[in-house]
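Quick one: structure for this chain?
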Amino acid sequence: MSTRDPDEFSAGQWPDWSFWKDQPDSHRAHGRGRVALATAMALASLTLIARAENIARSTGAPLVISFAIALVVCYGIGCVLASWYGPPALRRGRAAMVVVLFVLGATPAVLLASPNYLTDLTYALSIGLMLLPLRHALLLGLATVIGQILWMRLAHGEVAWAQVAILVGVTAALGTVFALNFTIGHLRAAREQVKRLAVNQERERVARDMHDVLGHSLSTMTVKLGLTRRILESSGDVALVVAQVTELENMARTALSDVRATISNYRTLSLDNELAGARMALRAAGVRSDLPTATDAVRAELREVFGYVVREGVTNVLRHSDAELCTVRVGADWIEVSDNGGYTGGACAGNGLTGLTERLAAVSGTLTHGPAPGGGFRVVARVPHLATDPARPQQTEPT
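Got it. Here's what it folds into:
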């Protein structure tokens, strides 16, 4: 049995006006103000003035007439208040408001024995369309129209269709105003949500890229600084120290450029450049490297994301491993970074592997990582296979 989408429209669904709570105070007040103003204008022009005058000119006991006029005034005020306080109310409160409005609107017709006064229930019906499920509101409106027609037929022998038309027409007009305000409010709330999601997505992108840029660069610079310190402590070879410091200076400039490009969203990675940088960083750390000399087998659209895999994998080797050998293997749609160090589990908890998983998911790829079969740690990225190009060299995919 399939479950209905909660965002899908249903005639039995209670109208959700909760978007007013999430909007700024100015938008919320404007939305509720438009609804209340539309109700007040209609009441002022058609009910509070015209109906009160008709009741005052009718024949009957003065006390009954005064009571009927008071009910009409209370009915008009109640409709305006219901249009303001009804949408944020709970379901039971909404239903109670509609019931009270129907009692206030129908009582003058009963007291004066005039079915024509039931036309005033158009405002209660409009509030019902605003606050109740559409199915209930339509049934309530249908019952009101049928009741007025039958009462007119039994009391006068004929139906004043003009009064019935007013009942239906004004209800439809006010219901349309409420529906438009409801739709506009939901669209404005959806637009604000899209803005928030876009901001959050951009924050995640910047955080992920900054981790990739600074994590790798700072790890490599830390290794080279340690090497420079050991040279000064052991041999004091100034020329070698100057060479190391020059490389550090160049790396710092590159990292700064990468940070600026990351913020501007202009940075792109090259798999070949990342392999070259990995070779230099591993050599500085005293780790032997077994890296591919060519990346022609890799699909062009995967070179950037595979560059991130190399960067994060080598960074983890420098940070968390005592490896003596780091190996990188590539294929058309997969890449593997492994080492022979002692696995401590530290790489699993980093944010870098989480960021890699998100990057690969964007190209429908997957990332697996964990202990390597022969010891050490292994990171493998795979992207679904496409048709094999016979001219492209293939390599055995890792198991």
